[in-house]
Structure formats: structure tokens, C-alpha cells
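FORM 7B: Structural annotation worksheet

SECTION A. Query
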Amino acid sequence: MTIRLFTTGLRWSAMLLTLAGGWANVSSAQQFNDLHRGGSINEPKWEQLAFCSDCNSGGAYVSDDYGSAYGDAPGCCDDGCCGSCDLECCDTGCCDPCTPPWAHRTGVWGTFLYLHATGADMHHAQQQNGTGGAGTTPFGLIGVTDPDHEPGFRVGGQVACDMCTSVAVNYTFFESSAIDSLDIPANVGGGLGTVGSLVHHPAADITSSAGPVNADYDLKMQLLDADYRRLFRASNCGWMNYFVGARYGRLEQDFRQLGTFGGSQGGVIDTTTQIDFDGTGLRVGLDGERILGHGCFSAYGNLSASALVGSFRGDYRMNNATTVSDLAIVRWEDDRVAPMLEYEVGLAWTSCSGCWRAKIGYTAIHWFNVATTPDFVDAVQADNYVDIGDTLSFSGLTSSVEWRF
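SECTION B. Predicted structure
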């Protein structure tokens, strides 16, 4: 009895140390199995994968607990590793994977993004019933450059250090453009209907426009990530990894409004803003997956947080193209930390060999403490550059294809 209690205590201690220590001592699948062989009383049984010594390719067989999800013949050796197996053994027509699904594998992937930027709408002009000043009130539509859903992409790859660890690199690119044109209101008689700008500096002697007033807005995001990933929990139903790494982020915002305006300084007024950010910082997160039923489908999700330390640089220029003169110029710079939160959930399909994967899901990337174009223009008009900051988000659909070998 004493020996049995002592053995049970050792098993519980090993489990607690493993979960608390992040599996720091697990460097291979064999160590993983040795550590968790036998499981625990009230916990799901940890997957026990044994190497198939008959496979020159280094393939593996699946235990009885796990094999039901990948064929009716657990213990079958996939000696071709990708795309072939012993048909007499794999009578279901679906080969057992060479490695368990939680194992880290070297591979590359490409992702299609279809995102919508929120928090970036730029209200640049309004219809009104006068030329400006006292007695002039809004009278109709507000001109807005509103970014719509646009395509982007992510490419990357990872190198497996062993079955439990890997190093991954990702590059993300997204660009969105929006245009708008606002003319005078049609329901104002007497020639009093005009268009007023919402982005001019109030000190400039500019009145309204007889229309149209045109605007365009471009938004670009680039991310480069390098992460160290490690498995810290796995069972016959699912698995989870943590990752730690570094991120470089670049954000570009370009706005322009063009129209013919009246006033003593009137003419073709070209108003532009440009805001750029470059920053780097640490990135941490989790990713996990759970097998659905006994097929090749699974639900997946990931969550990451980062804090980019960098600099925002903003330029504002109000130029009279008719007289070739500048009416207002602002050059602003601010060092700050821009936190980021990113998550993705969806459905994944994995081929029987484990070499091909396809995913579709929903993703969101949130930037915090960002100098956005609307906030920057408001600061210029108020001559107050304190506390310029807002949230900028990119969210939408994502689909990817991965090849692992």
C-alpha cells in the first residue's frame, strides 16, 4: 500500500510540475509519452504515441485510444509517411498519420484575408444652406471616406525543432482605399446650397464650395512576426501551444481632399494628411485545436497580444493650388506604445497523411492608442496635440492552405 501511494504521488507530482513548468523537460515525443504514460484519475488520458520501428521513414503508429479518429486499424504503420500506407492494414482507405496531429511539423502556408477597417472613417465635408459663417447650418449629407472590405494576405512557415517545439515566421499585408465625392444639396433654393469642408483649418479665410468636393483615403498595414512555439497540453481530443516572439508593425494612413472654395484665400484647395507608424515589441499568445467527431475536421483558435514601441509621425498641409501657396502646415511626432490584440477562430480540415491543411475562419486585429486621421485633423483644427489616440481595428474572413512535410 505504501509503495502504491508513493507511486501515485510521484505521478501527480510529475503532472503538476509538467503543467506548471511548461513541459520544459520534454524534448521529444518519446519523452512526452514517458512522462504521461498512465494518465491520471480525473483527467483525460494523455495520448500515448509509440514509434514504429519497422518504418524506415520514421513513421509512427497510433494507439488504440487515438486511432479511432484516424482509421479502424490502430497500430498501422504509415511507411510512406505522406500519401501511402499498407492497404491491408488501413482498410478504411484513410492512412494513419505519420505523426500525431499535435506534433510540430515543418511547413509553409498562405492565407487570404478579407478585412474591414473600423475606426478609420473620415468625415470630410457636409452639405449646407449657406456660404459659411453665421446663419449657415448643415443641410443634407455628410461626405465620408469609409473603407470597405478589401483583400489582403499572410504568408509564412515554420521549422520544427522536435515534435513539441518549432520556430515560425509570418508576414501580413493589408491595404484599403476609399473615395468620396460630395455635391451641393438639391433641396436648397436661391443658390444657397453649398458644400463646406470639415478638414480645413478654421483660421484660413476659406468659405464654402459650389461642389463637388472630392476625397480619397488609403490605409496600409504590415506585420512581421517571429515566434517560438511549444506544446504544453495535448490529449486524444485536442491540444494547445503557447508562443513567444517579436513583432514589427507598420501602419500608414494617407488622406486627401480637393475642391474649389471661396473666400479671400479661396481657389483650388488641396488638403492632405499623412500619418506613419513603425514599431517593434514582444508578442505572446496561445493557439489550440480540438478534433470534431472521428473525421478530419477540427475547430481551432488562437489569441495573441503584443505591445509595439515606436513613433507616430503626422503631416498636415493645406495648400492653395491656384495661388501656389500654403495656408497651413503641421509636422507632428510622438513616441508611444501601441498595444495590439489579435484573435482568430474557425474550422480546419487536415488530410489523412497530415501533410495538407485548409482553414476558414474569422479574425480580428485591434490596434490601441493609435493616432488616427480623424483624431489628427481634430487636433490640428483645435491647435491641441495632447492625447491624440484611438482604436483602429481590422476584422473579417480568413482562409488558408498549409503544406507540411
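SECTION C. Observations
The helical segments are 2-21, 29-36, 64-67, 373-382. The chain is about 10% helix and 55% strand.

SECTION D. Sign-off
Analyst initials: ____
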